[in-house]
Amino acid sequence: MQLKLFKAALWSPLLALALLSASSAFCAPAWAKVEVVTTYPYIAELVKEVGKDKVQVSALARGDWDPHFVVARPSLIAKLRKAELLVINGAQLEIGWLPPLLRQANNAKVQPGQPGFLELSNSVQLIQKPQNVSRAQGDVHPQGNPHFITDPHLVPPLAKSVAEKLCQLEPGDCSDFRSNQAQFNQRWQAKLQGWDAQLKKLKGKKVLEYHRLHDYLIQRYGLILVGTVEPLPGIPPSPAHTAETVTRAKKAGVSLNLRGVYNPEPPSRFVSEKSGIPLITLPHDVGAVPEAKDLFSLFDTLVSRLSR
Ligand SMILES: [Zn+2]
Fold first, then answer.
1. Fewest CB atoms within 10 Å of the CB: 31, 141, 152, 179?
2. 89: CA distance to ligand 1 center in Å?
3. Rounded to the nearest whole angstrom, what is the distance from the C-alpha of residue 148 to the centroid of ligand 1?
């Protein structure tokens, strides 16, 4: 009976169409979206820009969380379990929390080294790679500073590597990914001119920061880092270090005291109150503050808070 139907289908385009649509219900339809999981919201935004309607994206961490420490939850493991692509910041920013989640998710497709894995830090030049790493230096990032997302000039190469990865996974949609990336890049370059014009005014200004979170931004726009409120990465400030920071900042003529939304506020506030240097809280990711809704508004917020 089935063979007869098949033979009949050869002669009847209408029947062939009906058979084809019936059979497609049992295998993955051509319009299925690529399930992408990212470690941080800013990466999810990048993937949405490049993948548009061809991707289904969700981030593991929230933008207002400390990116170094994300608490493992069953919901995060479930997301990783069904992912076809995992995109991470890399440079060991996720080293403290992602490996156990990946182990528990037990999804071979998205393990490091597999086609379904992308580490964005490979597409930027990392700064501050330590000569040697010891516990005495605190929780230092051994591959270099992983907080490259604070420099808007580094966003286009990240978008390019996302497009290349999506092309590798879904070659049939590659021309769409490439044109989405080109359009994104065009919009980004237009905004970048305005951000550059604002931030260039800060050149030569001396700054403090809580953690070495804004160093790519500091370097890009010629600001001068005088010190950090935390004595060593991940080590909370002692009263002695805080007092010394106040003295040093006043002597050097520091004009901005920066902190990330997740850094403890009291030590930075204390330094600002004692020195008279304004404290500026900056978003480090999409969703870190309510105004930073996407990549564009993240940098709009960052720039407006810095140029106040
Ligand atoms: Zn860090």
1. 31
2. 12
3. 10
Spatial contact of 150 and 284, defined as CB atoms under 8 Å apart? yes
Mean pLDDT by 10 residues, the chain (308 residues): 43 46 48 94 98 98 97 95 98 97 97 98 94 74 94 98 98 98 98 98 98 98 98 93 97 98 97 98 98 98 96
Q: Residue 138 Cα, ligand 1 centroid: separation in angstroms?
A: 11
Residue 244: give the domain boundaries. 198-306
- What CATH number should be reported for the domain holding residue 48? 3.40.50.1980
- Domain boundary at 195, 214, 243, which? 195
User: Cα of 146 to ligand 1 centre, how many Å?
Assistant: 7
- If asked whether residues 186 and 204 sit together in one domain, one would say no
Give residue 88 CA to ligand 1 midpoint distance, Å: 15
How far apart are the C-alpha atoms of 250 and 83, rounded to whole Å?
50
Span from the CA of 33 to the centroid of ligand 1 (angstroms):
33
260 CA from centroid of ligand 1 (Å): 11
* Same domain membership, residue 93 and residue 213: no
CA of 66 to the centre of ligand 1 (A): 9
Cα(281) to centroid of ligand 1, in Å? 16
Q: Are 154 and 210 in the same domain? A: no
139 alpha carbon – ligand 1 mean position (Å): 8
Q: Which of 156, 175, 195 is the last residue of a domain?
A: 195
Query: Does 166 reside within a domain?
Result: yes
Q: CA–CA separation, 272 vs 255, rounded Å?
A: 10
Same domain, 168 and 81: yes
Q: How many domains does the chain have?
A: 2
The reply to whether the predicted model has a pTM over 0.85 is yes
Residues 185 and 228 in one domain: no
Distance 244 CA to ligand 1 centre (A): 22
